[in-house]
Write a structure and sequence with these properties.
With 169 residues, the protein is of the alpha/beta class. 39% of the residues lie in helices and 19% in strands. It has one domain (2-167): Leucine Aminopeptidase, subunit E, domain 1. The chain contains five helices and six strands. It has a six-stranded mixed sheet with strand order 1-6-5-2-4-3, sandwiched between helices. The radius of gyration is 14 Å and the shape is globular. Bound molecules: ligand AR6. Ligand AR6 binds next to strand 2 and helix 1.
Length: 169
């Protein structure tokens, strides 16, 4: 049900990939830039109609030229030392993405390591929040989602996620 893989999230043919967006939803660097480039210019047209998104929340668009049918744009927190609700807001991103996928009846979803790039969230703190939030959701909620992939781009996240997911099996 939960898999850890290393690679480029824009290549995955899943029902939805999650984007690590900013609150404007109008694109940026990192995985957000890669998703917009691969999806093509129609993605930003649809994003403009959403009028942004609050930190900790998420919004869905089509995937356009991506192999994924949908993109769920989640806005992670900027790390500001750890006393500004960063952990709760990060957990909320994963939960909201799963709620939206459930509302749409989606089966497969792939997550990047939200906030651990440009937003500076320490990777060793973000990983258990992501994994435990997803596990808790699966335990507590009725959901159509049965295939969840954590897509790690860098080696450190890949190692952290493999260890964390293995320990809970
Ligand atoms: N596939 C999977 N993961 C990736 C890819 C990819 N193609 N490219 C990067 N990553 P970041 P954030 C990983 O910086 O920290 C943007 O400008 C990367 O190694 O993309 O949430 C937005 O517009 C890292 O582990 O997102 C926002 O302004 C993870 O994705 C801001 O950055 C997240 O890194 C969001 O910052």
């Amino acid at each position: 049900m939960i898999q850890v893989i290393q690679g480029d999230i824009t290549k995955l043919a899943v029902d939805a990939i999650v984007n690590a967006a900013n609150s404007s939803l109008l694109g940026g660097g990192g995985v957000d830039g890669a998703i917009h480039r691969a999806a093509g210019p129609e993605l930003v047209f649809e994003c403009r109609m959403l009028h942004g998104c609050q930190t900790g929340d998420a919004k869905l668009t089509h995937g356009y030229n991506l192999p994924a049918r949908y993109v769920i744009h989640a806005v992670g927190p900027v790390w500001r030392g750890g006393h500004n609700h960063e952990s709760e807001l990060l957990a909320s991103c994963y939960r909201r993405a799963l709620e939206i996928a459930t509302e749409r009846g989606l089966t497969s979803i792939a997550f990047p390591n939200i906030s651990t790039g440009i937003y500076g969230f320490p990777k060793e703190k973000a990983c258990p929040i992501a994994v435990e939030t997803v596990q808790k959701f699966l335990e507590e909620q009725q959901t159509s989602v049965s295939d969840i992939r954590f897509v790690c781009f860098d080696e450190e996240n890949y190692r952290l996620y493999r260890e964390k997911v293995a320990e809970s099996h």
